[in-house]
Amino acid sequence: MQYVADVTAGQDARAAIEIDRVSHVYAGAEGGVPALEDISMRVAPGRFVVIVGPSGCGKTSLLMMMAGLRDHSAGRIHVHGAAISKPDPDRVGVIFQEASLFPWLTTLDNIEFPLSLRGLSREERRRKSEPMLSLVGLSGFGARYPHELSGGMKQRVSIARGLVQDPPVLLMDEPFAALDEQTRMTMGHELLRIWSTTRKTVVFITHSLTEAVYLADEVYVMSPRPGRIIDHIEIDLPRPRTYEVMATEPFGRLRERIWQQIRRSQ
Amino acid sequence: MKRWHILAVRAVLLLLVVGAWEWAPRANIVNPMLLPPLTEVLAMLKVQVARPAVQEAILVTGLEVIVAFLIAVPLGAAAGIAIAEFPYAGAIFRPMLFYVFSIPKSIFLPMFILVFGIGFQQKVAYAAFTTAFVVLMSATAAVESVKSDYVLVARSFGATPMQILWRIYLPSMMPVLLETLRISMIFNFTGVMIAEMYASRTGIGHLISNWGENFQMPQLFAGVILLAAVAIAFNETVRYLEARCSTWRT
What we know:
heterodimer, A: alpha/beta, 6-stranded mixed beta sheet, 4-stranded antiparallel beta sheet, 8 helices, 23% strand, B: mainly alpha, MetI-like fold
């Protein structure tokens, strides 16, 4: 947690993520297709930020750019002060929509994959991966293969894999989209628990407005292509949040506001 | 159905075939000139395997099979991977290769004889030629079986291209690769046999072809059993490895 520690050690609130007028144009047959337009965002360390928007608005592209997995045409992206141009696993962990676990590796080996890329010894890897396994509530499942796990368990492993190198920033691309409603609710709750113990900066992408309001400190709303930021909403619901919060009036109002923004933009 | 049940039925069927092979010629239900009893064939097999000429033929055939395999597999795999990985090469060569793949390879055998004669080189060249196409097609499929998601995940953790090759491509492709190895060996063996039976001075294929022409049925069947045993042994070994390497496959 070195980067987060820097910030709390007294340098004035440096942003964890800074996106400065980022645009992107896809090369097309007739000129270019604008995908993202003038996106700016400033995420303070330790915040849980959710980006919502209609399909094809470019929110996943934006996340991939933050992860250094995709180029952008204009603008700058900084994570903890460093410009992002290629994947930087020390700063950023990515969790994908499909858990994308390697089927030929056991749960523990999957979690240790990022560590093995750096040539850590077996003991060192175990020392780091075991706590991750229990953090995501899968103690005792370390020797299982992915095909022996449920969809929710797979995403837990994927979260553990994203956290194992202790990056200060976690990028999550609709991680629960493929799960059924009940599992999805449980996983959202679990994610908040994990987040509150690790205090990572999280950028989370979703289609679900309920999920957005339930998880977020702040929500960014994007327009259909070309994607622009059309609203930025503070979610000031008290934490820790429980499922009951979804039935409250403030929750409904926030959800409604996001829905109105998305509807008006289409 | 229970496992032991299936095994029992298989054993009974095998015994029936073996028993029929022994009994039918002796009872003159089939012509023993055409199908000698099994015990006679096995006795002949023992005699033949002890003959230096046969041992030499086995050695030659074995060497041809191995050398052809060692040429065809790397060559076919490299070409197949290149076609799958480089869209430009794929666009140019893929249709041609599919056309050539569809042609029965044995019609090229006379040309191989003209170029290489009827010795060791001709067997190896012809078998490698027929095998390389199978390897090429399978290697292309193997590369295409690697999910791009896995590569993306590895890249997000900072994997280098070499790490992606060794830790993502190789394990992803392993089950398909082993299957390729197995199937290509079948083609390879067939290639050597056809070349030996068509025109040759030595090798098991040549012996079998001779025995057939001279109506030496016990010898012919002994040769068939010998070849079958070797081919099945190889196939099952690779299949065993395949199963071990793909426990994760559902």
